[in-house]
Queue: 3 jobs
Job 1
Amino acid sequence: MKHLDEYRDEALTRRLLDELTATVTRPWRLMEVCGGQTHSIMKTGLHDLLPPQIELVHGPGCPVCVTPLELIDKAIALASRPDVIFTSYGDMLRVPGSGRDLFSVKAAGGDVRIVYSPLDALKIARDNPAKTVVFFAIGFETTAPANAMAVVQAKAQGIDNFAVLVSHVTVPPVIAGLMQESGVQVDAFLAAGHVCAVMGYWEYGPLAEQYRIPIVVTGFEPVDLLRGILMAVRQLEQGRHEVENAYERSVTYEGNQPAQAIIQRAFELCDRKWRGIGTIPMSGYRLRAEYAALDAEQRFPDVGAIQTAESSLCISGLILQGRKKPFECPAFGKECTPQTPLGATMVSSEGACAAYYRYGRYRDAIAEAEKKSS
């Protein structure tokens, strides 16, 4: 398929690997921010093909994974109300809260519905005026425009039985947060191509300069990823720290300005909790004051007051910060599997733990455990 197969070309992939091998002279640790990139790396086996000096660590770029536990508990509390129809993308339904998940609420009789767009949730609100329809608005900047449009349309059309539970986060502040954390060792970042397709990459220059770290906008296919890795390694080897774009077919410097405009119309920046990481200042979106009536946490104050402590059993926070690999978790592939997940990084289709398990990396955990016991 044109524009897809050409970025999976074996000969070109091997040439890029050869060039990378000829370029690298010392160990480097690169973090891919996006969970979709992590899955592509695992699926294609790129991590096993790279020169041994290059280590890829997996960042917090999975919106399901970084949604804090208390937001899941708030979603469960809302979905349990008889006067609410709770709508969400499907991958959120299996994310465990502190006691159960949204699937359990649905099984117990709660009106929980999977939708493919926030505009679907808006239609459900029109069709069910006697109930409040709540949409679980999660994600990075990629999903923010559609969620913002739903909010703007709901107000413009006078649909007053529609609300959103907001858990939006943004990429640049988490890069800064990771660089300020002691114990996080990252030499370069591969920025998420789909986020930059919306936001551009004009925000990353100050980060690269302040932390003296290369940032390369990267796509999702093997050729895309290797181009991004090669560009980052070249910078590191040459002592440069710049922002470069290895995903030119989809990303421009200024990004999608109409999409940015609708985000700014509905949302404003705020401090936001990240699951396993903690609160990062000005790293998320919340509804602007003129749309406060559509904020589910304000509409249902008892739900908004819920606070939940994170479980100490799951090490997903360490994984999201690149401090640990999934197979280093004692529960990985044993107590924690996609069928019996302990945390969001195993539940999410973009989670690092799910990627390692799906593509056979749980065998590394078994081998490591056997090695330590022998």
Job 2
Amino acid sequence: MGFLSSLKREQKEAIGLLQIGTFLEYFDLMLYVHMAVLLNELFFPKTDPHTAALLSGFAFCTTYILRPFGALIFGYIGDNIGRKTTVIITTMMMSISCVIMANLPTYAEIGITAAWVVTICRMVQGMSSMGEIMGAEIYITEITKPPVQYPSVASIGVASCVGATAALGVASLVTIIGFNWRIAFWIGACIAVIGSVARTRLRETPEFVGAKRKIQKDIYEKSLAGSIPETKTNAISQYIARCKQEKINKKTLSACFLIQCGWPLSFYLAYMYFNPLLKTWCGYSVNDIIIHNFFLSIVILTSETIWAKLSYRIYPLKILKERLKAFSFLILLLPFILLYNLNHYQIFALQSFLLIVCLYSGTGDAIMIKALPIFKRFTTTSFMYALSRALVYIITSLGLVYITESMGHYGIWIVALPICIGFLWGVNYFEKLENQKQNKPQVYTPPSTNPSELKLAG
């Protein structure tokens, strides 16, 4: 990517390590998601189509149900101990869950226990992924400055797409040549360990370290002045009190949440919603769907890479608005398009367009992160991210089963249109904040590409 020439060597190394870790983490996380049509048959009991749809939806959304709790746990670690520690812990958790699933007997062998164990493993993976992608984005936000900050942070989303594509590639090998799916999970476990070891080379972000030092300095100065006794207990209490005094604007929280709701809606509609249609209209088998989704993953990987590069030259919030316009237009047309029995080429084109203009906030994440207090940044962004995924995935994967039964494809509007409106409000809110800081789109210009002119934030 061209913006890399604007980064110092230390910044490039940190971004590279975080990209590798995110790739490994999302390879593991998405391996089951995209193989669910195959693995659900192994780990869950065979039932009627309606119950099977609910079980499939349950298996899918359990990955996200405990994410808010994971966000609170790892957010606390990230805001109080450090960003680096969090991303190492979460990668190891992912590795352990992959080892368990690689050795887990099927439903035919141990009954319902298999379903419970695989569900718990998916919950653990969902929790660990919270400290991963947001930790990486916060880390990069705190070591870079705009506008190189925008594509640098967005590159983490690109790395997650690479991981998902690799997971689908492995899933395709399982279906095409009979590659053992258990080996795929062993591969995932091994590369997660590699990611943990690689991340030990990271250093804590200057902005986070600087903020902690400032608090320590304040405590020391007050102790010299006699304001507080110079004891460790008082120092810790003062530090905690200082952190709690930081205020978070409720509108900022709402805007973060509403923007984050866009991606889970886009992902579910583009991938999961069309699976039954591919089976019914095109006669697709489980294997066909996995291969079909592999090519879709290449589409989103390519498009997100392009969007990330464009964010260096085009204001990120403007990009999000243009994508929203195209996505909303397609959502309005979608129920009418689906009145016809489409062939697999037409369905693929429809899914591809949904992914190209999907409501993914990657290019604007740095702007949202910087709007939050540094000692509440990790917890807040992670929790909003997790809550949006948990809520929207439950509504889509379970709610749409019932809504579309009574309303047909028009039921998509019930879920999608409010999310699109919320997304627009959130983008407009952050645009106003940026304008207040005199970072208006019309004066947005890239910096010099001379690396010597770029300094670490903080």
Job 3
Amino acid sequence: MSFFGAGRPIPAPGHMGVDYETRVDFDRLRRYRLERAQKALAGSECGAFLLFDFYNIRYTTQTWIGGALGDKMTRYALLTRSGGPTLWDFGSAARHHKLYSPWLAEDDCRAGMLGMRGAIAPSAGLMESAVREIKGMLEDAGLAAQPVGVDIVEPAFLFEMQRQGLTVVDCQQLMLDARLIKSADEIMLLNQAAAMVDGVYQDIVEVLKPGIRENEIVAMANKRLYEMGSDQVEAINAVSGERCNPHPHNFSDRIIRPGDQAFFDIIHSFNGYRTCYYRTLSVGRSTASQRDAYAKARAWMDAAIDAVRPGVGTDEIAAVWPKATEFGFENEMAAFGLQFGHGLGLGLHERPIISRLNSMTAPVELQVGMVFALETYCPADDGFSAARIEEEVVVTADGPRILTLFPAQDLVVANPY
């Protein structure tokens, strides 16, 4: 973390490189990610990792195509102990990579097609030929007798690997561990993504008046994020009035009314690095019930942040939050995701996952370089309002650093009257 300078804010420098400041070094970022994945492979029983998870593909090959194609279980990458990564992609995308992704050898950008989540049936033979090609590469490298680690996979492809004699094991756990510690470049990209949301919340405060609809807020936020350089707006929750409790995790066409409490979650990515960023506002005025709920949610948040430092277990973070039965739920499964923490990176939900559901029995020790979001939720005693707060935190040797800077210490009333 010394890259940022002692006591200085983490930079959010903008969208382009310049000659007069040190900003994100993408070559260094690519080297870091591939080295982390290669180290995970070297420490495993596997001779190779076969990756279908599109975050793992980006992490190892440094390539990306849009979510509409990237999530169809057709792109895949092979990382071996003796070379790689080799990427199979949509044919025209593979040709593009040959031109614009010089860190990949030209022969390691190959056209591939497996079936578009079953739309092309396995009987067409695409999976059979793909496995045969992969097996041949492993044989040539002297790795065919070692297990192949796979992160996520369609059953038909898994069965074909087994039919052709390959031993398949799970490598998703290893890849998530590889992605756990963020480099200075990753943290800067995460901070830039959060800075963009800071600005969107200012826009929301200015337009959050009676008569506007939740979906109009969502439309405005999408537009502003793409204008500012977002590469994917994954989701925006907009929840107001009687929809606040219970929390529906979506948005609707509900009209905002005077005195509503409203909370929003903005999930987008900048150069692949994501935000998860809740803020709660009141519209025009606030009630004592709303203010009380907000104060409790803020106190739970502050207690969690205060506990963040290297060496602390995630069980110690979860322990500062109320039990499910203390805020109206029958058990921790029913309340999961409300008092909650989750890693942020190329994926929205990376390690560590922090909650009473899992952390009390399987705690993870916090390390310098972890980045995660902390979320709290408190239903109001009026029976329908609720407060939702989220802060993104970097673990440094000196304690927590906060990326999410839009004001949230007290309940903000938008356009008071």
